[in-house]
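2024-03-11 09:14:02 INFO worker-7 job=invfold-0412 stage=load source=structure_tokens
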């Protein structure tokens, strides 16, 4: 069979899609749950070599849900108009659990847009309490605006984003990142058929070869891109793992003026705790500074403390201070304000006494003295650690801490939760031995952020009440 194909022949075609179901995408294993329809009305003129499509594409009653990644977009609206040299994003709205995302803009092209040779662009994206992902182990709320515009070689991005609340469980996030891989796409039917018949004797005569499409257009367009993106984290952003619970706040900037992106800004620890060998360290001060550069190397200043009772049952405080950059940090330990060695610090963490005392205690244990308290302290520490993890997974709270002082004689449970993004309430309950003179049986605190630098704190306990600014 022989037929003639002329790339210069005029083209006059029309493509119409009326409520084409998006559910067919499930066959490609891209998503589990997608609904809605595609509406299309496209006229194609020009020639086979240089087609000139013009028309409209819309999504109707669309929604996407991928539980594994926390994606749950309730409604998706898309309306795109295009001419051969221009694509206009008239409407692109996504509604999530708490808010929405909106986008509009246009792309101009040299020649047909299918060649990818962008001459100019302007895209704006708006977020209003939008949940890009909302999973039990990782979630985020996003507000603000981001823009991308400019000509090839002069593209500029900008934006001012705010993260009112978010939570990331590190083990779950790392496990999820390990699952990302490109899905295996089935071979298109047309390609498969052409491959099967490529050895048959059919022939095709063309007047001239069809020029290959230059796919480097978008890549060249984004060369030398520059700009600044600001991200504000007011509070209520949590980083969690089995041994770590941190609340962060800060302001960072993503800047590109050279061949690489740089990150500037500071991130502070509002409150947090970290468990070492079953002991809970409360983070008193945490400050991380990002100073740009091609390599991200934050400078830290973090102080955490652990309060315990020594062998004389006197209360002592062990403090660890981490300073310097992340590649070469300096770690110092102090006991009640006096520097101690790392070995002594580990001994205090594990047994509540120094290395010298531990040696004497081991000798005394042979005579039957002292060993019981060490075992009780270790058991209480491990138990409190496990209870903290269990309660944290069971209760719907943002912060939880269970502290045991010396053995099981007394313990303190602290739970806290954000009622709104500016109002944090905590409840502290002391169990075991208490007295009216030296301990509060309970304490309730309300912390309200008036400005970034001004807090109002109200407290009520079994002994007193008041407020601080």
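2024-03-11 09:14:09 INFO worker-7 stage=emit residues=469
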């Amino acid at each position: 069979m022989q037929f003639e194909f002329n790339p210069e022949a005029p083209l006059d075609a029309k493509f119409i899609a009326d409520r084409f179901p998006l559910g067919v995408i499930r066959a490609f294993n891209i998503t589990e749950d997608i609904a809605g329809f595609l509406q299309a009305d496209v006229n194609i003129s020009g020639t086979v070599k240089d087609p000139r499509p013009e028309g409209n594409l819309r999504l109707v009653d669309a929604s996407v849900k991928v539980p594994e990644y926390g994606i749950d977009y309730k409604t998706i609206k898309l309306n795109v108009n295009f001419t051969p040299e221009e694509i206009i994003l008239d409407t692109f709205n996504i509604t999530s659990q708490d808010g929405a995302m909106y986008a509009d803009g246009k792309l101009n092209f040299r020649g047909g847009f299918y060649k990818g040779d962008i001459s100019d662009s302007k895209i704006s994206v708006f977020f209003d309490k939008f949940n890009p992902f909302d999973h039990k182990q990782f979630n985020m709320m996003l507000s603000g605006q981001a823009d991308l515009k400019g000509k090839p070689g002069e593209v500029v991005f900008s934006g001012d984003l705010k993260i009112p609340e978010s939570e990331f469980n590190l083990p779950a996030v790392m496990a999820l990142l390990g699952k990302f891989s490109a899905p295996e796409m089935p071979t298109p039917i047309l390609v498969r058929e052409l491959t099967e018949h490529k050895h048959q004797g059919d022939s095709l005569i063309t007047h001239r070869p069809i020029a290959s499409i230059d796919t480097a257009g978008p890549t060249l367009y984004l060369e030398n891109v520059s700009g600044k993106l600001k991200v504000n984290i007011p509070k209520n952003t949590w980083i969690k793992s089995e041994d770590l619970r941190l609340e962060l706040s800060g302001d960072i900037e993503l800047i590109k003026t050279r061949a690489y992106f740089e990150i500037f800004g500071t991130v502070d620890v509002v409150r947090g705790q970290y468990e070492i060998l079953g002991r809970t360290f409360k983070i008193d001060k945490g400050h991380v500074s990002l100073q740009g550069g091609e390599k991200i190397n934050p400078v830290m200043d973090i102080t955490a403390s652990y309060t315990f009772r020594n062998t004389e049952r006197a209360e002592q405080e062990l403090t660890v201070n981490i300073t310097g950059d992340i590649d070469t940090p300096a770690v110092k330990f102090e006991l009640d304000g006096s520097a101690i060695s790392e070995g002594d610090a580990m001994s205090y963490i594990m047994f509540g006494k120094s290395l010298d005392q531990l040696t004497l205690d081991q000798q005394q244990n042979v005579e039957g003295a002292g060993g019981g308290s060490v075992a009780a302290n270790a058991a209480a520490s491990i138990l409190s650690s496990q209870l903290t993890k269990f309660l944290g997974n069971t209760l719907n709270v943002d912060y939880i801490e269970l502290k045991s002082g010396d053995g099981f004689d007394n313990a303190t449970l602290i739970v806290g939760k954000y009622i709104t993004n500016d109002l944090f309430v905590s409840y502290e309950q002391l169990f075991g031995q208490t007295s009216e003179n030296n301990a509060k049986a309970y304490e309730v605190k309300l912390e309200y952020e008036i400005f970034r630098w001004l807090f109002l704190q109200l407290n009520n306990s079994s002994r007193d009440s008041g407020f601080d600014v």
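2024-03-11 09:14:09 INFO worker-7 stage=report msg="DSSP finds six helices and 25 strands in the chain."
2024-03-11 09:14:10 INFO worker-7 job finished
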